[in-house]
Automatic annotation (TrEMBL):
<protein>
    <recommendedName>
        <fullName>Uridine kinase</fullName>
        <ecNumber>2.7.1.48</ecNumber>
    </recommendedName>
</protein>
<keyword id="KW-0547">Nucleotide-binding</keyword>
<comment type="pathway">
    <text>Pyrimidine metabolism; CTP biosynthesis via salvage pathway; CTP from cytidine: step 1/3.</text>
</comment>
<dbReference type="InterPro" id="IPR000764">
    <property type="entry name" value="Uridine_kinase-like"/>
</dbReference>
<dbReference type="GO" id="GO:0004849">
    <property type="term" value="F:uridine kinase activity"/>
</dbReference>
<comment type="pathway">
    <text>Pyrimidine metabolism; UMP biosynthesis via salvage pathway; UMP from uridine: step 1/1.</text>
</comment>
<keyword id="KW-0808">Transferase</keyword>
<feature type="binding site">
    <location>
        <begin position="13"/>
        <end position="20"/>
    </location>
    <ligand>
        <name>ATP</name>
    </ligand>
</feature>
<keyword id="KW-0067">ATP-binding</keyword>
<dbReference type="InterPro" id="IPR027417">
    <property type="entry name" value="P-loop_NTPase"/>
</dbReference>
<keyword id="KW-0963">Cytoplasm</keyword>
<feature type="domain" description="Phosphoribulokinase/uridine kinase">
    <location>
        <begin position="8"/>
        <end position="193"/>
    </location>
</feature>
<keyword id="KW-0418">Kinase</keyword>
<dbReference type="InterPro" id="IPR006083">
    <property type="entry name" value="PRK/URK"/>
</dbReference>
<dbReference type="Pfam" id="PF00485">
    <property type="entry name" value="PRK"/>
</dbReference>
<comment type="similarity">
    <text>Belongs to the uridine kinase family.</text>
</comment>
<dbReference type="InterPro" id="IPR026008">
    <property type="entry name" value="Uridine_kinase"/>
</dbReference>
């Protein structure tokens, strides 16, 4: 018996926009179902450059990602095949040698800043979500996150934001908003948007015979 095609949900937006909060809210709504989260960050390209040069890479540019690998592994999951997802080390600014074995699920959430920039990736998604958050809020969140979780200095974070993060957001990320099916202001705090998404996902699950 062939299993129904999984639902693929894309969640995008600028750095620290609240993408993870939206993804977590969806997870909470479907806690009784089989879900997995595939993060675009895991697919940063492996670099042989010295550490100081890796720090200067524009990680918000489309060319920073191994998009063909992400596309290939997402297609494998949709085909109900397991994958070995790469792991990215934020402190070393490089992909590690470790992998995470992931088995197929009924609902696949693909999260990342540039997942809607690639047409082949977009075409694999059933629902495309753009999380829209003010620049000032995002930079404050980014400072807090990178200092606490990634061990970076305030000066390093600010320099990176001004040099690459902010310009790349307006050049590459914000324009992908036009591909979204739904734009969610305020991220996971927008309960109305989460409820609408939940209703739509349940309808697709029912149509494909993937009941909770």
């Amino acid at each position: 018996m062939t299993l129904p095609k999984p639902i693929v949900i894309g969640v995008t937006g600028g750095s620290a926009s609240g993408k993870t909060s939206v993804s977590r809210a969806i997870f909470d709504q479907f806690s009784g179902h089989s879900l997995l989260l595939l993060t675009q960050d895991a697919y940063y390209k492996k670099s042989d450059l010295p550490f100081e040069q890796r720090r200067l890479i524009n990680y918000d540019h489309p060319l920073a990602f191994d998009t063909p690998l992400l596309h290939r592994q997402l297609k494998q999951l949709i085909a109900r095949e397991a994958i070995d997802r790469p792991v990215y080390d934020y402190k070393n600014h490089n992909r590690s040698d470790e992998v995470v074995h992931m088995t197929p699920k009924d609902v696949i959430i693909v999260e990342g800043i540039l997942i809607l920039a690639d047409e082949e990736l977009r075409n694999l998604m059933d629902i495309k979500i753009y999380v829209d958050t003010d620049d000032d809020i995002r930079v404050i969140r980014r400072i807090k996150r990178d200092m606490v979780e990634r061990g970076r200095s305030l000066d390093d974070i600010i320099q990176q934001y001004l040099k690459t993060v902010k310009p790349s957001y307006h050049q590459f990320i914000e324009p992908t908003k036009r591909y979204a099916d739904i734009i969610v202001p305020e991220g996971g705090r927008n309960k109305v948007a989460i409820d609408l998404l939940t209703t739509k996902i349940r309808a697709i699950l029912a149509a494909r015979g993937l009941q909770e």
